Amino acid sequence: MLRSLRFRLPALFLAGIVVSGLVAAVVAFQLFQSYSLRRAKQELRREATGVTRLYVDQANSSNDPVPASQLEHATGDRIYYVPVSRGFDLFPGARSAHLRTLSRSVLDFAAIKRGETLQFEFTPPGTKKTYLAVAQPLILGKAKTKSVFGALVVAKPKDQLENRVVPLLERLGIALLGGLLVAAIIGVYVSRRLARPVLELSRAADEVSRGRYDVEVPRVQTADEIGHLANRFREMASRLSVAEQQERNFLMSVSHELRTPLTAIRGHVDALREGVADDPALRAASLDVIASETARLDRLVGDVLDLAKLEANRFTLLQEEVDMEQLCDHAYAAFGEEARRRGIEYRRRFDAAPTILSDGDRVLQIISNLLSNAFRWTPDGGRVELELAAENGAVSVAVDDTGPGIAPRERERIFRPFWSRDNSGTGLGLAIASELALALGGRIDLESELGKGSRFELVLPGRQ
After folding, report:
1. Alpha-carbon distance 303 to 324, whole Å?
2. In which band, very low, low, confident or very high, does the pLDDT at 388 lie, cut at 50, 70 and 90?
3. Dihedral sign, Cα of residue 122, residue 124, residue 129, residue 132
4. Average pLDDT taken over every residue of the chain
5. pLDDT per residue over 60-86, tens digit each?
6. Is 318:354 a contact under the CB 8 Å cutoff?
7. Domain coordinates of the chain in residue numbers?
8. What is the DSSP string of 281-312?
9. From residue 369, how far is each of 294, 299, 427, 437 by CA, in Å?
10. What CATH superfamily classification does 320-461 receive?
11. Is residue 7 within a helix (H) or strand (E), and if so which, with residue range?
12. Rounded to an integer, what distance in angstroms lies between the CA atom of residue 112 and that of residue 82?
């Protein structure tokens, strides 16, 4: 359960939301704390300026000062007086303003004498709280006789700033919980939407691993990676199914192809052993059959080995001068007897006599395979034609037949190994011809029309 994609997706999603929320909360807390501190200092500076101006006006006019308790009640802050010297009275002969006094040691009094406004923190006597304070110089007298008579300090506890942050933290906590709830709902929905096709693909993969290639792959109606994966997996399963069918057909075909000549060879060998074929003519005929069927077996095994070597890229090719006219004559003559026996109109047309640098035996094998395919599908009384031409630096050998033609959907499949249109034969001839043509640096082109025949054309590079 904990290792499943359905659990890990929403878990990771929620973890990301939590981490993002915590980072955002920390940043917001620091920004708000900095903002609150800056605002508190600005407020203290304004209050210190106002209170100082008030007491300066009252001292210059010799009026009774406003009691400090009233100002503290109005502002909510504490007001202190730092005298210029010990025992100095800011309002001599007047009713006391009840100003709390501080020692000059709590601030830089030299800066006060220079008329500077100071911001500082201190712990008032008799308390354990830290206060944030602003000290404003108290300057009395007329323009020419002005002098500093101390400083007025306005202070507020720092924990008041922290109290302002608490509501923010509460709201951030509520917002984070709400975000987690929404994220959990979205995460569960997204994980189910993503995990469902993945789990279905996983189950389909399990079936494929057991050899069931006809498993139904879920169709994902999206254009994302999951949809792409589902489509590619469906194609893979389909190709594996086709490959399995081709392998089954190949085994059936090869077993049939092997069994037929082996049965003939065994029958004639038994006849020779038992003395049934005493007549020299019958003995010679039996030996001819044995030789013919042995050659047939040799060709079949050779085809299988050739295909295996081609697919493993372990095929060795020779480089020699090849007289294409002589080679095509040789291939043409090999099928003359079959054409005569079946009444097939068998023609050749050589428009050139080129010489190329290639592997002559393999070129002959390709042409022979193309002719063998043409004779296999051409009905008795039909027509097969072999053409040789050279132009534009390339040599072409074409085989035309009047067979049934090849449907467009089958034109690519006929070059696959073990595939046969009528499920007979090994399906190796055209596959080997195509692979050999590519190995020789050429290709095989196909033109076909249903009901009229086909044209296979081997195109090889001319002599360099």
Report:
1. 23
2. very high
3. negative
4. 79
5. 776 677 777 788 888 788 888 888 777
6. no
7. 5-163, 225-304, 320-461
8. HHHHHHHHHHHHHHHHHHHHHHHHHHHHHHHT
9. 19, 11, 11, 12
10. Histidine kinase-like ATPase, C-terminal domain (3.30.565.10)
11. helix 5-61
12. 10
Size (the chain), residues: 464
Residue type, 396: S
> Average pLDDT, stretch 266-290?
77
CB 78 within 8 A of CB 124: yes
Band of residue 427 on the pLDDT scale cut at 50, 70, 90: low
CA dihedral 183, 187, 193, 196 (to 10 degrees): -160
Residue of 458, 415, 448, 429 whose CA lies nearest to 327:
458
Distance of CA 243 to the CA centre of its chain: 27
Residue 8 confidence (pLDDT)? 64
Per the CB < 8 A criterion, the answer to whether 77 and 154 are in contact is: yes
Q: 170-179 — which CB contacts under 8 Å span 24+ positions?
A: 172/24, 172/25, 172/28, 172/29, 175/21, 176/18, 176/21, 176/22, 176/25, 179/17, 179/21
Choose which CATH entry (3.40.120, 2.60.40, 2.60.98, 3.30.450) describes domain 5-163. 3.30.450
How would you classify residue 368: left for phi > 0, otherwise alpha for psi between -120 and 50, otherwise beta? alpha
Which residues, in sequence order, are CB contacts of 236 under 8 Å at separation 6+? Answer: 208
Model confidence at 249, in pLDDT bands (50, 70, 90)? Answer: low
393 to 226, 446, 455, 462: CA distances (angstroms): 48, 20, 21, 5
From the options 3.20.20.70, 3.30.360.10, 3.40.50.1000, 1.10.287.130, give the CATH code of 225-304.
1.10.287.130
The set of residues, in sequence order, having a beta carbon less than 8 Å from that of 93 and lying 6+ positions away, is none
340-382 pLDDT, tens digit each: 999 999 999 999 999 999 989 889 989 998 998 999 999 999 9
